[in-house]
Structure formats: C-alpha cells, structure tokens
Amino acid sequence: MAVTRLLLMALMVTILSAGLAHATDWIEERVVGFKNVKALIARIEDGLSEDKLDKVGADAQTVANFAARIPDLFPAGSGQGGKTSASTDIWIHFADFSSRAEEFRRAAETLAHAAETGNRAGAEKSFSALRSTCKSCHIRYKDLF
Ligand code: HEC
Hints:
Elements: H1 2-49, H2 53-69, H3 89-92, H4 94-116, H5 120-141
C-alpha cells in the first residue's frame, strides 16, 4: 500500500515536471523570437535610412513569419513555470491577443510589400505603424517587471 502510494507520487512528480519543462520550452522559444524581432526592427530602421529597401523587405518578411506563429507560441499553461513576462490576461482574452498578433503580422507584410516595390515613403509610413503594434500589445499583455 505504502509502496503503491510512493510510486503514484513519483509518477505525479514526473508528470508535473514534464509539464513545467514544456512551458519553459515555449517561453524560451518565444523570447528568443521576440529578441530577434527587436534586432530586425533596428536593422530595418538602418536599412530605411540607408535606402537599402531590398534588405528591409526581407527582414520585414521574417518579422511577418514570426508574427504568424505568435498565437501558437502561447499555448494554455505556458504562462508560468519559467522566467516569463507574459501577462495572464493573454489567456483570459486570447481572441483579442491573437487579433493583435494578426495586426502585427499584417503591418509587417505591408512594410515588406512597400519595400519590395521600392516605395520608400510607403515603407517609412508602414514602419512606424508596425512599431506602434508592439507597444499596443505590450501595454496589455506584457508585465513590466
Ligand atoms: C501580440 C502581442 C505582441 C506584439 C505585437 C509584440 N510583442 Fe513583444 N512580447 C509580447 C509578449 C506577451 C512578450 C513576453 C513573452 C514572455 O516573456 O513569455 C513579449 C516579449 C518581447 C521581448 C522579449 C524581452 C522582453 O523585454 O521581455 C522583446 C524584445 C519584444 N517583445 C519586442 C517586441 C517588438 C520590438 C515588437 C514589435 C516589432 C513586439 N515585441 C510585438 C507580446 C507582443
């Protein structure tokens, strides 16, 4: 009896820690992805001022591809168990969170298109629109500590 209980407890601990390891993987993957986005945004800004629109277009496309994955990178249960600044509001308002990710993706696509077609004025305008989508999501869904 005692042995059975011990085995059950060991099994539960294994299952729980597997769950935590899983959450940690999601957190790591998305934080690495967002840091890469930050670096790409800096590079896009340089590219715009140096008029290297082909590079801007490619980088904006990379940002759009990441943006498309955002909802999948925040599965239920991945808001704890690691070092994360994801707000629990994400899972309370997941439809709104996902639509902000979609807005972000669309803004990046618009920038990519403007840059690829050599439309510099359009690229600059869509770059500032793209940046404002970062802040509007962070204000609601990223904890500040
Ligand atoms: C749809 C919402 C959303 C959009 C849009 C978004 N972010 Fe984030 N971002 C988050 C969330 C949520 C986290 C926290 C992830 C975690 O810690 O698990 C995060 C984390 C980050 C991080 C990781 C390091 C840190 O400060 O915690 C960086 C850097 C970042 N975002 C930059 C950006 C930039 C730059 C943009 C726009 C070009 C952007 N993000 C757009 C939601 C968003």
